[in-house]
Design brief:
Number of strands: 23
Largest sheet: 6 strands, antiparallel
Shape: globular
Number of helices: 10
CATH architecture of the largest domain: 2-Layer Sandwich
CATH superfamily of the largest domain: ATP-grasp fold, B domain
Distance between the termini: 29 Å
Oligomer: single chain
CATH topology of the largest domain: D-amino Acid Aminotransferase, Chain A, domain 1
């Protein structure tokens, strides 16, 4: 590196001795930092006494460039923006240089946390943070629903060779479909409720639901999240309106037998290479079920962490969810929803309802509360996932 001519301040030489990039200081013991704010990029001046040993020039590598993808194509985009904000807040800015990539149907944009836009190339997944376009070192996907939870973003990133924290294309595509999820879990031997998949215009839909599933049942858009478009149907007369609501969200609709029990959800993640279940959460609501309003707006919804259930049942659910996480080849933060059929049969029956592979990470979300109950900070999880991706 060419140092140029010394600059004299009247007392001792000032020598430009390196480039400091990122949010930290690293320089030779024989140098003393004189000027330049931390967190900027550029040339810095150091004091060196003329009798000091020869100056060692240190090249400071730029911090790993991390993309946090947010937005999406569904009504869950509002929740996604909040989840991405919490991920950004948890990320260690001294170790990683992270920006937001906002994914919308018409355009993708890149910005700093203060809204400053950065030039972005979607074709190569690169952005310019001041030294020309660079490909991102890793991606944190905070997009709920399509295209972040159904394998589309994962396939895009796979083609470009950019690591991400979620499951792969097959895992995400399968678990995005409620019917495919429970069908595969049933084949693997995990207890699930009877269900039926309907296409729009399926002949004798009401008759099939009555024969194969029965009432009461839940009518669910096959790939919607946050309980959008879901209805609980108690009689055959209620079914047509519920199907219309569900088909407005998705061309495929699952009808699932309603089970009676306590709703228990369990977070699972992989830390230091080990699959680990978090404390179980019990969801209590005065609504007919845990719908969108109950999740995000109802004042009387209770999310009890840890759930007030016998230790034997909590451990059963945790081991079950760890097994499902491994069997379905999940990765990153996952939440698995179950019902405990308390007082039925031997009292130990647990039915799995669905797998959420990009669970909400907002201040109102369950997942951060389960982490807190486990004594794990959001920073441990988010920084750990990024460190694993770029290792």
């Amino acid at each position: 590196m060419h140092l140029g001519s010394p600059v004299v301040d009247g007392r001792r030489p000032l020598i430009p001795c390196g480039i400091l990039r990122g949010n930290g200081r690293e320089y030779s013991p024989s140098c003393k930092l004189q000027q330049g704010p931390v967190g900027t990029s550029g040339r810095f001046m150091f004091h060196r006494h003329p009798s000091s040993p020869p100056l060692t020039v240190i090249h400071i590598m730029p911090l790993p460039f991390i993309a946090i993808l947010r937005g999406g194509f569904t009504g869950e985009s509002v929740i996604s923006m909040q989840s991405a904000d919490n991920m950004m807040a948890a990320l260690d800015a001294a170790r990683y240089d992270a920006v937001f990539i906002t994914v919308e149907r018409d355009a993708w944009t890149c910005s700093r946390t203060d809204g400053t836009p950065l030039p972005f190339d979607r074709g190569h997944f690169t952005a310019d943070r001041g030294k020309g376009h660079e490909r991102f070192a890793a991606a944190l996907i905070a997009v709920h629903g399509t295209p972040g939870e159904d394998g589309k973003l994962q396939g895009y990133l796979d083609l470009l060779g950019v690591p991400y924290q979620t499951g792969g294309v097959l895992n995400m595509a399968l678990t995005m479909s409620k019917f495919s999820t429970v069908s595969l879990l049933r084949q693997m031997g995990f207890p699930v409720a009877p269900s039926l998949l309907l296409h729009q215009g399926t002949p004798d839909a009401t008759g099939r639901v009555a024969r194969e599933v029965g009432f009461p049942c839940f009518v669910k858009p096959d790939t919607s999240g946050s309980s959008l478009g879901i209805s609980k149907v108690k009689t055959a007369d209620e079914l047509p309106a519920a199907l219309d609501l569900a088909f407005a969200e998705d061309p495929l609709v699952m009808c699932e037998k309603a089970v009676t029990g306590r709703e228990l959800t369990c977070g699972v993640l992989r830390m230091d290479g080990k699959v680990q279940a978090l404390p179980v959460c019990e969801i209590r609501t005065t609504h007919e079920f845990f719908d969108y309003q109950a999740k995000y707006h109802a004042a009387d919804t209770q999310e009890l962490v840890p759930a007030p259930i016998p230790d034997e049942i909590a451990q059963l659910i945790q081991r079950r969810c760890e097994a499902i996480y491994a069997a379905m080849n999940c990765n990153g933060m996952v939440r698995i929803d179950n019902f405990w059929l308390e007082g039925q049969g031997d009292g130990k029956q647990v039915v799995t309802i669905e797998i959420n592979t990009v669970p909400g990470f907002t201040a109102a979300s369950i997942y951060p509360r389960m982490l807190k109950a486990a004594g794990i900070s959001p920073g441990q999880v988010v920084n750990g996932m990024v460190a694993e991706m770029i290792r």
